[in-house]
């Protein structure tokens, strides 16, 4: 129900600083995402206008209860699959804290290495390509965010040789190991959060 501008704003920030807290909005665990740096007031107005337009469009046909049911039925059906694919294809290697480096003056190789060490790939197979929507090539996805997904496998050998040349670790995991690493990473992050706020 949110705008494409809202998604693009957050996704572009994620691509610039993957898994860097607090620069990457995708790892912000704050309980409220209503007003602040990651979601300006104009986005709240846009979300509100979306629901107003939605009720004006579908309300006469389905009534208030039917329109609300339609909203949640669609969200219920799409949410598990979208959440699963996006979370499982964005395999975090580590979550870092931004140390306020002068990112504008860094060298190209430092920017590239940040993209490489912040994530990893899932081994290529017909199933993995289909299941992840070709986002099993997370390293290539973060290096070339505008490249069509079905071309990532073509540049992967070049990226791998670049990593070898510069001593960067190019990680490619089986899908089940990657999923296990996600669960362990989330468990570790949750434990740190619980320790900081509840103990």
Question: Which key terms come to mind for this protein?
Answer:
199 residues, mainly alpha, 2 domains, two-stranded parallel ribbon, 7 helices, 4 strands, globular, membrane, oxidoreductase activity, acting on paired donors, with oxidation of a pair of donors resulting in the reduction of molecular oxygen to two molecules of water, transmembrane helix
Description:
This protein has about 200 residues and is mainly alpha-helical. The protein contains 7 helices and 4 strands, in the order αβαβαβαααβα. Helix 2 links the parallel strand 1 and strand 2 (about 95). The longest helix has about 50 residues, at about 40-90. The radius of gyration is 19 Å and the shape is globular. The two termini are about 35 Å apart.
